[in-house]
C-alpha cells in the first residue's frame, strides 16, 4: 500500500524540531508527496530550512476561501485564544479537497518523526494508533456535529493518522448535508461552549470512520511525546536516541529543551517577527 501524501502543519515555534523531524520522515517513509502547511509570514523561513522534496505551502494558498482571521472573527471568545490551533486542524480537513478518493493521506504532527518501526497498514486495512487520552468536550462537539457519542474505548489522538481521502470527503459531505452550510462553519457552530479546547480532528475522523465501519484496525504501536527532553541526544544520535527509536514508532519533539538563555531569546524574536 502506498502513501500518496505525508501532510503536516507547522509553526515557527516548532522550527528547530521541524528541521530535524522532516529529514527523518524522508528517510523512514516512502510517499508520493511530502507537504507542510505554514502561516503566510513564515513561508520563506520554512522553505529555507526544509528539503526541496517537500512542498511548503502557505495557509492562505491552501485554504484561500477561509482565512485564520475569518475563523477568529467567528469563534466565541472562549475559543478565540486558540484560533491558530483550531485553524491547523481545519487545514488538515481541507486537504481532502486536493486528493482523489482512492488516495491515502498520512497526517503527521509537524514536531514528530516516524521511525523504521512505523506501520500504517495491515493487509488492506489502515492502522490507527490507539492512545488513552480522553477529553469530554471533544465528544460533545462531535455529538453536536454527527449525532452520536464516542464509538470506541480508546483515543485516536496520537501523532499520526492515516486516512483514505474518500472517507474524509464523506465526513465533510455528511456534515454539510446535516447543517446546510460549509463544514468549517458547522464545526464552529458545534463547538462545546464550556471549554476553550473543544475540538479534535483526529477524534472526529476516527469515530466517524468507526461508525461507518470503514476498513481500519486499531494498533498498539508505541509513540513517545517527550522527545524534546532529549533533543540533544536525538541530534547526536546517541544511546538515548537509539533506545527511543527501537521502542517507538513515532517520536514527538514536545516539551523541547528551551532552558538556555540563547534559545529563549531566539524563540521570542522568531515569534515577534513571524507571528
Secondary structure blueprint with pairings:
Layout: E1 3-9, H1 15-28, E2 31-38, H2 43-48, E3 54-58, H3 59-62, H4 68-74, H5 77-80, H6 83-94, E4 104-108, E5 112-114, E6 121-122, E7 125-129, H7 136-146, E8 160-164, H8 165-179, H9 183-190, H10 201-211, E9 216-219, E10 223-224, H11 231-236, H12 239-247, E11 250-252, H13 261-274
Parallel strand pairs: 1-2, 1-4, 2-3, 7-9, 10-11
Antiparallel strand pairs: 4-8, 5-11, 6-7
Brief digest:
The protein is of the alpha/beta class and 275 residues long. It has 13 helices and 11 strands.
What does this structure look like?
The protein is of the alpha/beta class. It has 13 helices and 11 strands. The chain has one domain (3-136, 155-173, 213-274): Spore Coat Polysaccharide Biosynthesis Protein SpsA, Chain A. 44% of the residues lie in helices and 18% in strands. Strands 3-2-1-4-8 form a 5-stranded mixed beta sheet. The radius of gyration is 18 Å and the shape is globular.
Briefly note the structural class of the backbone.
Answer: alpha/beta
Query: How many domains comprise the coordinates?
Result: 1
Helical stretch tally: 13
CATH classification, class level? Alpha Beta
- Rounded to the nearest angstrom, the radius of gyration is 18 Å
Please summarize the sheet with the most strands.
5 strands, mixed
Spans where pLDDT lies below 50 across 5 or more residues: 258-262
Query: How are the strands of the largest sheet arranged?
Result: 3-2-1-4-8
In whole angstroms, how far apart are the ends? 39 Å
Say what the CATH topology is: Spore Coat Polysaccharide Biosynthesis Protein SpsA, Chain A
Q: Find the count of extended strands (DSSP E, 2+ residues).
A: 11
- The gross shape turns out to be globular
Helix-residue proportion: 40-55%
CATH architecture: Alpha-Beta Complex
Order of helices and strands: EHEHEHHHHEEEEHEHHHEEHHEH
Our estimate of the beta-strand percent is 15-25%
User: Can you give the mean pLDDT?
Assistant: 92
